[in-house]
Design goal:
142 residues; alpha+beta; 29% strand; ATP binding; kinase; HATPase_C_sf
């Protein structure tokens, strides 16, 4: 799998959905449910996106939680037929183990091994302070 980051401005979104969610197990579940609903409305295949959203949202709640702060789910379909899933949490100081800071690939953790397997590309981007965004991309099959 290629983990090279895509600069945010390199692929303008054709479709975009973003929502803040509570940093709770309920919020993580709601992220998955809302993603399924939105992807269905767009006519985008649910798998593997559903599993990627579930894992990234669960990680945000478990490892990126700050009391009183939410996390953000963003789904975007870009022109070249790529679904990008981004989960932003307020813990930029807590990167996945072994991940250097900046817009670079991240490695480690059992859940992230699943992300590695399911995504065509993924990584972590730090900022804006104090946040970090873990993102995954999948090519949309015709």
């Amino acid at each position: 799998m290629n983990q090279q980051p895509l600069p945010p401005s390199a692929a303008p979104a054709v479709r975009r959905f973003t929502v803040p969610l509570s940093a709770t197990r309920r919020g993580a579940r709601l992220a998955r449910l809302l993603a399924v609903q939105q992807l269905s409305e767009w006519g985008v295949p649910l798998d593997p996106a559903r599993s990627l959203v579930a894992e990234l949202a669960a990680n945000a709640v478990l490892h990126g939680r700050v009391p009183g702060r939410s996390f953000r789910l963003t789904l975007s379909v870009t022109g070249p037929g790529v679904l990008r899933i981004e989960v932003t949490d307020p813990r930029g100081d807590r990167l996945p183990s072994g991940a250097p800071s900046g817009d670079v690939p991240a490695e480690s953790g059992y859940g992230l091994a699943m992300v590695e397997e399911l995504a065509d590309r993924w990584g972590v981007r730090v900022g804006p302070v104090p946040c970090k965004t873990v993102w995954a991309e999948v090519r949309l099959r015709a």
